[in-house]
Protein backbone atom coordinates (compact mmCIF):
# COMPACT_ATOMS: atom_id res chain seq x y z
CA UNK A 1 0.00 0.00 0.00
CA UNK A 2 3.13 2.19 -0.40
CA UNK A 3 2.98 3.49 3.16
CA UNK A 4 -0.56 4.78 2.84
CA UNK A 5 -1.69 2.35 5.56
CA UNK A 6 0.16 2.30 8.87
CA UNK A 7 -0.35 0.69 12.27
CA UNK A 8 0.91 2.59 15.29
CA UNK A 9 0.62 2.43 19.06
CA UNK A 10 -0.54 5.64 20.70
CA UNK A 11 -3.31 8.00 21.79
CA UNK A 12 -5.59 8.99 18.92
CA UNK A 13 -6.46 12.36 20.53
CA UNK A 14 -2.92 13.57 19.73
CA UNK A 15 -3.14 12.92 15.96
CA UNK A 16 -3.02 15.99 13.69
CA UNK A 17 -4.86 14.41 10.76
CA UNK A 18 -7.85 15.59 8.75
CA UNK A 19 -10.19 13.26 10.67
CA UNK A 20 -10.01 10.93 13.65
CA UNK A 21 -12.69 8.32 14.15
CA UNK A 22 -14.55 7.92 17.45
CA UNK A 23 -15.79 4.50 18.60
CA UNK A 24 -19.03 6.01 19.87
CA UNK A 25 -22.40 4.67 21.01
CA UNK A 26 -25.74 5.27 19.29
CA UNK A 27 -26.58 8.30 21.45
CA UNK A 28 -23.40 10.15 20.30
CA UNK A 29 -23.48 11.80 23.72
CA UNK A 30 -20.14 10.50 24.99
CA UNK A 31 -19.04 7.59 27.15
CA UNK A 32 -15.86 5.91 28.38
CA UNK A 33 -12.87 4.51 26.51
CA UNK A 34 -11.71 6.34 23.41
CA UNK A 35 -15.03 8.21 23.25
CA UNK A 36 -14.45 9.73 26.68
CA UNK A 37 -10.85 10.63 25.78
CA UNK A 38 -11.92 12.35 22.55
CA UNK A 39 -14.63 14.41 24.28
CA UNK A 40 -12.25 15.43 27.08
CA UNK A 41 -9.61 16.56 24.61
CA UNK A 42 -12.04 18.30 22.23
CA UNK A 43 -13.86 20.24 24.94
CA UNK A 44 -17.58 20.91 25.51
CA UNK A 45 -18.32 22.32 22.06
CA UNK A 46 -18.00 18.79 20.63
CA UNK A 47 -20.81 17.51 22.85
CA UNK A 48 -22.91 20.55 21.92
CA UNK A 49 -22.57 19.72 18.22
CA UNK A 50 -23.23 16.01 18.89
CA UNK A 51 -26.52 16.93 20.59
CA UNK A 52 -27.75 18.40 17.29
CA UNK A 53 -27.21 15.06 15.47
CA UNK A 54 -29.92 13.06 17.34
CA UNK A 55 -27.85 9.88 17.57
CA UNK A 56 -26.57 7.46 14.97
CA UNK A 57 -27.45 3.87 14.08
CA UNK A 58 -24.91 1.08 14.59
CA UNK A 59 -22.56 0.86 11.59
CA UNK A 60 -23.46 4.35 10.32
CA UNK A 61 -21.20 7.42 10.72
CA UNK A 62 -21.66 11.15 11.34
CA UNK A 63 -19.01 13.87 11.15
CA UNK A 64 -18.42 16.89 13.40
CA UNK A 65 -15.72 19.49 13.96
CA UNK A 66 -12.66 18.62 16.02
CA UNK A 67 -12.72 21.74 18.22
CA UNK A 68 -9.69 21.69 20.57
CA UNK A 69 -8.31 18.50 19.01
CA UNK A 70 -5.41 18.74 16.56
CA UNK A 71 -7.65 16.86 14.07
CA UNK A 72 -9.94 18.99 11.88
CA UNK A 73 -12.92 16.59 12.08
CA UNK A 74 -14.21 13.74 14.20
CA UNK A 75 -16.17 10.93 12.52
CA UNK A 76 -18.44 9.25 15.09
CA UNK A 77 -19.45 5.65 14.48
CA UNK A 78 -21.15 3.24 16.88
CA UNK A 79 -19.62 -0.17 16.24
CA UNK A 80 -21.58 -3.33 17.06
CA UNK A 81 -21.82 -4.78 20.56
CA UNK A 82 -20.62 -8.41 20.41
CA UNK A 83 -23.51 -10.80 21.08
CA UNK A 84 -21.80 -14.02 19.97
CA UNK A 85 -21.37 -13.23 16.29
CA UNK A 86 -24.76 -14.36 14.99
CA UNK A 87 -26.39 -10.94 15.07
CA UNK A 88 -24.68 -9.47 12.02
CA UNK A 89 -21.75 -8.15 14.04
CA UNK A 90 -19.06 -8.70 11.33
CA UNK A 91 -21.08 -6.88 8.67
CA UNK A 92 -21.92 -4.05 11.07
CA UNK A 93 -18.25 -3.61 11.97
CA UNK A 94 -17.32 -3.48 8.28
CA UNK A 95 -20.08 -0.88 7.80
CA UNK A 96 -18.57 1.26 10.59
CA UNK A 97 -15.17 1.33 8.87
CA UNK A 98 -16.52 1.86 5.35
CA UNK A 99 -19.07 4.52 6.34
CA UNK A 100 -16.43 6.38 8.39
CA UNK A 101 -14.01 6.35 5.46
CA UNK A 102 -16.74 7.59 3.12
CA UNK A 103 -17.93 10.34 5.48
CA UNK A 104 -14.39 11.67 5.84
CA UNK A 105 -13.66 11.34 2.12
CA UNK A 106 -16.84 13.28 1.26
CA UNK A 107 -15.77 16.06 3.66
CA UNK A 108 -12.49 16.35 1.73
CA UNK A 109 -10.30 14.47 4.21
CA UNK A 110 -7.21 12.74 2.85
CA UNK A 111 -5.54 11.70 6.13
CA UNK A 112 -7.38 9.73 8.81
CA UNK A 113 -6.80 7.81 12.02
CA UNK A 114 -8.92 4.97 13.45
CA UNK A 115 -9.08 3.41 16.89
CA UNK A 116 -9.85 -0.29 17.24
CA UNK A 117 -13.64 -0.03 17.00
CA UNK A 118 -15.75 -2.38 19.19
CA UNK A 119 -12.84 -4.30 20.76
CA UNK A 120 -13.04 -2.57 24.16
CA UNK A 121 -16.30 -2.31 26.10
CA UNK A 122 -18.20 -3.81 23.13
CA UNK A 123 -16.10 -7.05 23.36
CA UNK A 124 -15.76 -7.84 19.64
CA UNK A 125 -13.03 -10.56 19.38
CA UNK A 126 -9.80 -8.74 18.62
CA UNK A 127 -8.32 -10.93 15.86
CA UNK A 128 -11.59 -11.04 13.90
CA UNK A 129 -12.13 -7.29 14.32
CA UNK A 130 -8.58 -6.57 13.14
CA UNK A 131 -9.07 -8.69 10.01
CA UNK A 132 -12.32 -6.88 9.13
CA UNK A 133 -10.83 -3.44 9.83
CA UNK A 134 -7.66 -3.95 7.79
CA UNK A 135 -9.49 -5.60 4.88
CA UNK A 136 -12.04 -2.76 4.68
CA UNK A 137 -9.40 -0.01 4.90
CA UNK A 138 -7.15 -1.64 2.28
CA UNK A 139 -10.12 -2.08 -0.09
CA UNK A 140 -11.02 1.59 0.33
CA UNK A 141 -7.43 2.71 -0.30
CA UNK A 142 -7.32 0.67 -3.51
CA UNK A 143 -10.57 2.28 -4.65
CA UNK A 144 -9.41 5.79 -3.65
CA UNK A 145 -5.79 6.37 -4.77
CA UNK A 146 -6.04 10.00 -3.59
CA UNK A 147 -6.62 9.03 0.04
CA UNK A 148 -3.13 9.80 1.31
CA UNK A 149 -2.92 8.00 4.64
CA UNK A 150 -5.00 5.90 7.02
CA UNK A 151 -3.45 5.06 10.38
CA UNK A 152 -4.70 2.44 12.86
CA UNK A 153 -3.94 3.87 16.28
CA UNK A 154 -3.72 1.02 18.78
CA UNK A 155 -3.79 1.89 22.46
CA UNK A 156 -1.84 -1.15 23.69
CA UNK A 157 0.71 -3.63 22.33
CA UNK A 158 -1.72 -6.57 22.21
CA UNK A 159 -4.02 -4.58 19.93
CA UNK A 160 -1.10 -3.39 17.79
CA UNK A 161 0.15 -6.98 17.33
CA UNK A 162 -3.33 -8.16 16.29
CA UNK A 163 -3.56 -5.48 13.57
CA UNK A 164 0.01 -6.14 12.39
CA UNK A 165 -0.76 -9.83 12.08
CA UNK A 166 -4.01 -9.15 10.16
CA UNK A 167 -2.07 -6.86 7.81
CA UNK A 168 0.61 -9.50 7.13
CA UNK A 169 -2.11 -11.89 6.02
CA UNK A 170 -3.99 -9.37 3.85
CA UNK A 171 -1.31 -7.26 2.18
N1 LIG B 1 -6.58 6.33 21.65
C1 LIG B 1 -6.68 5.19 20.92
N2 LIG B 1 -7.36 4.10 21.35
C2 LIG B 1 -7.94 4.16 22.56
C3 LIG B 1 -7.88 5.30 23.39
C4 LIG B 1 -7.17 6.43 22.89
N3 LIG B 1 -7.06 7.56 23.59
N4 LIG B 1 -8.56 5.03 24.54
C5 LIG B 1 -9.01 3.76 24.45
N5 LIG B 1 -8.63 3.23 23.25
P1 LIG B 1 -13.67 1.34 23.57
P2 LIG B 1 -15.84 0.13 21.93
C6 LIG B 1 -8.88 1.87 22.72
O1 LIG B 1 -14.15 0.63 24.77
O2 LIG B 1 -15.41 -1.25 22.29
C7 LIG B 1 -17.65 3.95 25.02
O3 LIG B 1 -18.17 4.11 26.32
C8 LIG B 1 -9.24 0.76 23.66
O4 LIG B 1 -8.09 0.28 24.35
O5 LIG B 1 -13.29 2.77 23.70
O6 LIG B 1 -16.18 0.42 20.50
C9 LIG B 1 -18.61 4.41 23.93
O7 LIG B 1 -19.39 5.51 24.36
C10 LIG B 1 -9.77 -0.28 22.68
O8 LIG B 1 -8.69 -0.96 22.05
O9 LIG B 1 -14.78 1.27 22.35
C11 LIG B 1 -19.45 3.18 23.74
O10 LIG B 1 -20.50 3.10 24.69
C12 LIG B 1 -10.47 0.59 21.62
O11 LIG B 1 -10.00 1.92 21.85
C13 LIG B 1 -18.48 2.05 23.94
O12 LIG B 1 -17.45 2.57 24.78
C14 LIG B 1 -11.99 0.58 21.68
O13 LIG B 1 -12.43 0.49 23.02
C15 LIG B 1 -17.85 1.61 22.63
O14 LIG B 1 -17.10 0.45 22.84
Short structural summary:
By secondary structure, this protein is of the alpha/beta class.
Overview of the structural elements:
There is one protein chain. By secondary structure, this protein is of the alpha/beta class. It has a single domain (5-170), classed as 3-Layer(aba) Sandwich (Leucine Aminopeptidase, subunit E, domain 1). Helix content is 40%, strand content 18%. It is built from five helices and six strands. A six-stranded mixed beta sheet has the order 1-6-5-2-4-3, sandwiched between helices. The longest helix is centred in the middle third of the chain and has 18 residues, at 89-106. The mean pLDDT is 98. It binds ligand AR6. Ligand AR6 binds at residues 11-13, 23-25, 31-35, 37, 79, 115-122, 153, 155-156, 159.
